[in-house]
Every structure is written in C-alpha cells, then in structure tokens.
Design a protein that fits this description.
Structural class: alpha+beta
CATH architecture: Alpha-Beta Complex
Strand order of the largest sheet: 1-2-3-4-6-5
Largest sheet: 6 strands, antiparallel
Distance between the termini: 19 Å
CATH class: Alpha Beta
CATH topology: Aspartate Aminotransferase, domain 1
Number of strands: 6
Number of helices: 3
Order of helices and strands: HEEEEHEEH
Helix content: 25-40%
Shape: globular
Length: 116
C-alpha cells in the first residue's frame, strides 16, 4: 500500500475531511470533525488508527508492524507500519474499523472486527 491508495480510500468515506493540523509530515483524516486516522509521511509510511482496546492488544501481539499508537492514547490507538507485512485488505479493514468507531461511537460499543 502507498500513500495515494491510503488517502483515496480514507477520503472516499462519507463526511471525511483531510488536513495537516500537526505539520506537513502528518496527514490527518477526520470524520464529523474527529480524527480516525493519521498518516506519517516522513520516513517509513505508517498510519495511526483507533481500535477497540482488547483488539488493539491482540493485533500488537500478532503483528510486529502493529505497535502502540505513537503520540496517541495507547489504549485506543495503534500505529501500523506499512512495510508490506500486512495485506492491503486487512489494512483497509482496520481503517474501516477506526472510521466506524469514531463516526458511530454508541453503535460500535460492542463492535467486533473479524480476527484473521
């Protein structure tokens, strides 16, 4: 996955805006004014995604390219290093999960993501 595909996917979702509130190295995606993804554009491409807390821990244990969210609440955010070790389909699924958690927080209290 590259930044163009990642960006196109994120902005294709309803009510999404993008911007650089933290400087030119971090592309931020918001839904209804709330952040659901942050892409690091300097150095190795990575993305911070919101995640169900229990699932966040499981993903970190399962995938070496998933680490606690850089500069984020480690309970609710993961940083995914986009180095080819995670399939594009799985990464897009995680983006969907983050988007849903942020855009519909009450509906997604018991949200589950397919475990792969």
């Amino acid at each position: 996955m590259n930044i163009e595909i990642l960006r196109d996917y994120c902005i294709s979702k309803p009510d999404v805006t993008e911007g650089f509130p933290f400087g030119e190295d971090t592309l931020v995606f918001k839904v209804k004014g709330k952040i659901f993804a942050l892409a690091n554009l300097k150095g190795e491409l990575s993305i911070n995604l919101k995640c169900d807390p229990e699932l966040a821990i499981e993903l970190r244990e399962r995938y070496s390219s998933v680490i606690p969210g850089y500069h984020m609440n480690k309970k609710h955010w993961n940083t995914v290093i986009i180095d080819g070790s995670i399939s594009d389909d799985l990464l897009l699924e995680w983006i969907d999960h983050s988007y849903e958690l942020v855009s519909n927080p009450k509906r997604n209290k018991n949200s589950s993501l397919k475990k792969k």
